[in-house]
């Protein structure tokens, strides 16, 4: 591992393959995922269940490599000390230094991520003493300031509460406070607002935006909710059946998606205020990862499926223009044909 | 509405007792639903929107008497549902059915799909043994599943297919009214649209009336003729879907709509402060006033009356100068 200059990307994922179980019955959850993230960048990783988005997120923290799964490819992270490490190759001891300090993660259900028998204070203070080597006293002060920053109205009361005494929105704030305790350069947020009501979701998204602005940490926002993506991210990666199928700037991808799956997904969502406009359902179901279709994995559901071509070879992720990639062998002819 | 509505709910309330201590002393009530009134016409879909703890699920279950209302009147086709005895209630279940959120929990995993769909027909005595296979096939066709699914096990089915089976089962008795409680929330985005289209199709083809309960306002607007918004057990606003979404008249509805993330528009966002208060001790006066950006001292004084602000569009808010 070599030291690297300022311009180096924060994260380079190269041909990540994560499979569970033993061949030939293994399930490949991530099939050659490659992408980069710059410092301070907010990127959304979008997909349905089984698309491999959560697996990819977990792999960035070295959280899938244990026993049951195998991880191939590389996940290079430029650490705070300027060194670059490959998460996929690090031993557990070194991973533990990386987690929390360089990369942190928040999950969908904060209740299952917090320890029910310790107070919030104990848990945040523990994180601070471990990651920042603070004394109890310093850590308490920092915990209070973190909670205040996260819009917790009475942080002292929050510190002496147990997780079950807090609302879902409060618990998620506590999780974010803990994730931020090590001042990570990259936060992986896996559906952090999915279990919350919309008005609370709006609060949390607002806080994440503000924090990102203040601290400059990069965020990989893993979600199934297309609407949320546009609220937060600059760039979007769309996953389907374990692969990235489209990558580009959020505004433009949403205005004019170019991969048929992204197009179909956008047309299948009713829009608020759009009464009267028809939605078009995508036929069929997300493919079973243990029995993927030949060729393009979206072809059985694709309106532009061409027998003999789409089901013959797996399409590569092609660069359509700088910053925009599409996984479809027909994208050019579809655009030229005005489809 | 000129004709008598299919379902008429008046002043519905549901209180749950809170008991404590050795002798289960009554120490208070949870006001899950508090004085809610609305109508649903034949073939009409009423959307019921609200966050968790708003009472929307309790309202849905109360109108079918799956939970016993504490007070209020529920009339279905002119008959008082709250007064039904057991045989009458059983007859009522032929007219009114429910579809739940989680299709995994709604079907007995040991039954075949065909048996699961046929069960209500047997229980209600609506088909003889020889008629059942044909009826099941017809119902599978209604929900766009192949006839050979009757022999399959629920475990072979995807979430979307299961939800179709749950809907087929609800349709088996030939109901005129269905309570659909978050029927697409547990499904993947690409599958949600399939179920939404199916519900839309059933509404127009079978003339089904529906109480569509959801936290997803975009889905609700798409499917519903009218929308009712509830907060802390109280009705805040009710009116035609398009109007409620485009020009909400209640501050809570306004905030709720502004909080919906939308990939294509940049609407003004209103971020509400704090959490929903406890339904054990709801705020006095208007229950929303503690989070309302427009609250005045007067809002604490009395529970605001529900007033018609446009034909068919009602709100429970004392301020007319804001929205």
From TrEMBL, chain A:
It comes from the Bacteria. GO terms for molecular function: ATP binding; ATP hydrolysis activity. It is a peripheral membrane protein. The keyword Transmembrane does not apply. It is found in: Cell inner membrane. GO terms for cellular component: plasma membrane. Pfam families: ABC_tran (PF00005), oligo_HPY (PF08352). SMART domains: AAA. SUPFAM superfamilies: P-loop containing nucleoside triphosphate hydrolases (SSF52540). Residues 11-266 form the ABC transporter domain. PANTHER family: DIPEPTIDE TRANSPORT ATP-BINDING PROTEIN DPPD, OLIGOPEPTIDE TRANSPORT ATP-BINDING PROTEIN APPD. Belongs to the ABC transporter superfamily. This is ABC transporter ATP-binding protein.
UniProtKB/TrEMBL annotation, chain B:
GO terms for biological process: peptide transport; transmembrane transport. Its main location: membrane. This is ABC transporter ATP-binding protein. SUPFAM superfamilies: P-loop containing nucleoside triphosphate hydrolases (SSF52540). GO terms for cellular component: plasma membrane. Belongs to the ABC transporter superfamily. InterPro entries: AAA+_ATPase (IPR003593), ABC_transp_ATP-bind (IPR050319), ABC_transporter-like_ATP-bd (IPR003439), ABC_transporter-like_CS (IPR017871), Oligopep_ABC_C (IPR013563), P-loop_NTPase (IPR027417). It comes from Limobrevibacterium gyesilva. It is found in: Cell inner membrane. Keywords: ATP-binding, Nucleotide-binding, Transport. NCBIfam families: oligo_HPY (TIGR01727). GO terms for molecular function: ATP binding; ATP hydrolysis activity. Residues 7-257 form the ABC transporter domain.
């Amino acid at each position: 591992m070599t030291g690297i200059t300022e311009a180096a990307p924060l994260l380079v994922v190269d041909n990540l393959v994560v499979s569970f179980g033993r061949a030939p019955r293994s399930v490949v959850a991530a099939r050659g995922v490659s992408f980069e993230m710059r410092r301070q960048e907010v990127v959304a990783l979008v997909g349905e269940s089984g698309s491999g988005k959560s697996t990819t997120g977990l792999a960035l923290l070295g959280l899938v490599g244990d026993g049951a799964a195998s991880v191939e490819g590389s996940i290079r992270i430029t650490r705070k000390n300027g060194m670059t490490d490959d998460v996929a190759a690090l031993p557990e001891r070194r991973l533990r230094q990386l987690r929390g300090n360089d990369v942190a993660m928040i999950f969908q259900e904060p209740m299952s991520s917090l320890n029910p028998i310790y107070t919030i204070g104990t848990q945040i203070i523990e994180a601070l003493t471990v990651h920042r080597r603070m004394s109890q006293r310093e850590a308490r002060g920092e915990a209070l300031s973190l909670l205040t920053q996260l819009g917790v109205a009475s942080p002292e009361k929050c510190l002496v509460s147990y997780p079950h005494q807090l609302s879902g929105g409060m618990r998620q704030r506590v999780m974010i406070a803990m994730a931020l305790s090590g001042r990570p350069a990259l936060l992986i947020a896996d559906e952090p607002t999915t279990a919350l009501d919309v008005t609370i979701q709006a609060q949390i998204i607002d806080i994440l935006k503000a924090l990102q602005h203040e601290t400059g940490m990069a965020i990989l926002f893993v979600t199934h909710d297309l609407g949320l993506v546009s609220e937060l991210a600059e760039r979007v990666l769309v996953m389907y059946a374990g692969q990235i199928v489209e990558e580009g700037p959020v505004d433009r991808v949403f205005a004019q998606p170019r991969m048929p799956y992204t197009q179909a997904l956008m047309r299948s969502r009713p829009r608020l205020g759009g009464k009267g406009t028809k939605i078009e359902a995508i036929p069929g179901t997300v493919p079973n990862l243990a029995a993927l279709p030949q060729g393009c994995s979206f072809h059985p559901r694709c309106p532009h499926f061409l027998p003999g071509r789409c089901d013959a070879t797996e399409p590569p992720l092609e660069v359509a223009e700088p910053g925009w990639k599409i996984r479809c062998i027909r994208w050019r002819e579809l655009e030229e044909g005005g489809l | 509405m000129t004709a008598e509505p299919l379902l008429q709910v008046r002043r519905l309330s549901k209180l749950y007792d809170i008991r404590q201590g050795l002798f289960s002393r009554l120490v208070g009530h949870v006001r899950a639903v508090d004085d809610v009134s609305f109508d649903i016409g034949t073939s009409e879909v009423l959307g019921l929107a609200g966050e968790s703890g708003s009472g929307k699920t309790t309202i849905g279950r109360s109108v079918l008497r799956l939970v016993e209302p504490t007070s209020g009147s529920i009339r279905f086709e002119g008959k008082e549902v709250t007064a039904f005895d057991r045989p009458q209630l059983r007859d009522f279940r032929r007219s009114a059915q429910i579809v739940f959120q989680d299709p995994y929990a709604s079907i007995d995993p040991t039954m075949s799909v065909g048996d699961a769909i046929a069960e209500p027909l047997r229980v209600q005595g609506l088909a003889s043994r020889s008629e059942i296979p044909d009826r099941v096939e017809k119902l599978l066709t209604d929900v766009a599943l192949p006839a050979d699914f009757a022999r399959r096990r629920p475990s072979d089915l995807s979430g979307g297919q299961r939800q179709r089976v749950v809907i087929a089962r609800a349709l088996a008795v030939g109901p005129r009214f269905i309570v659909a409680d978050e029927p697409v929330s547990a499904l993947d985005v690409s599958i949600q649209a399939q179920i939404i289209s199916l519900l839309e199709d059933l509404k127009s083809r079978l003339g089904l009336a529906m109480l569509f309960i959801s936290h997803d306002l975009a889905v609700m607007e798409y499917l519903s003729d009218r929308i009712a918004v509830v907060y802390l057990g109280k009705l805040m606003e009710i009116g035609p879907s398009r109007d409620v979404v485009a020009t909400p008249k209640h501050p809570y509805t306004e905030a709720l709509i502004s909080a919906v993330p939308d990939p294509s528009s940049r609407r003004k966002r209103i971020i509400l402060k704090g959490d929903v208060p406890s339904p054990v001790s709801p705020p006095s006066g208007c229950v929303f006033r503690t989070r309302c950006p427009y609250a005045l001292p007067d809002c604490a004084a009395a529970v605001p009356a529900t007033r018609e602000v446009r034909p068919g569009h009602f709100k429970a808010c004392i301020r007319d100068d804001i929205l």
